[in-house]
Amino acid sequence: MSRKIVLAMAATLLSAPMAMADAHAASGDAAAGERLFNQCVACHVVQNEAGDTLAGRNARNGPNLYDIAGKPWAHIADFRWSPGMQALNAAGILVTEETFVAYVQDPTGYIREATGDNSFRGAMSFRVRSEEDAINLYAYLVSLTAQ
User: Fold this and answer.
1) DSSP of 46-106
2) How many Cβ atoms are within 10 Å of 117's Cβ, its own excluded?
């Protein structure tokens, strides 16, 4: 095996933990995100593996948002995902601050851009209006995962 290939493989393996760490990095204000999450509770819940509800109600329209950071989109098995979200999952796209912010600001636009397929539509009709609010929501969700 050539030295360049070995070096490229080593660089890839060494950068994987950094990519996962970046997926959990949240630059927003979790307290502000908690207030903003009140807009999300009609459809979403944050419930840990033990079944404890950390935020929201027992909503079923949207998926449980617990521990989504760093995971592929549409990774929860018990939820009926739209074809667009399934395509994000198949593409291996992870939920990071960047992808979360883009998605919640324009679900359909994000799915179409990320998959390259303009036939997909987002099932989430709500849009977060500002980038700052979206960043704060992500920070709040990440903070709940650490509990």
Assistant:
1) EE-TT--EEEE-S--SS---TT-TTSBTT--TTS---HHHHHHHHTT-B--HHHHHHHHH-
2) 12
Helix axes 107-115, 83-90, angle to 10 degrees: 40
* pLDDT, tens digit (0-9, with 9 covering 90-100), for 46-55: 999 898 999 9
The domain locations on the chain are 3-145
Gap between the Cα atoms of 7 and 65, Å rounded: 38
What is the C-alpha end-to-end distance of the chain, expressed in Å?
Answer: 45
- What CATH superfamily classification does 3-145 receive? Cytochrome c-like domain (1.10.760.10)
In terms of Cα–Cα distance, which of 84, 76, 128 is closest to 102? 128
pLDDT tens digits, 43-79: 999 999 898 999 998 777 899 999 999 999 999 888 9
CA dist., res. 132 & res. 20, Å (int): 22
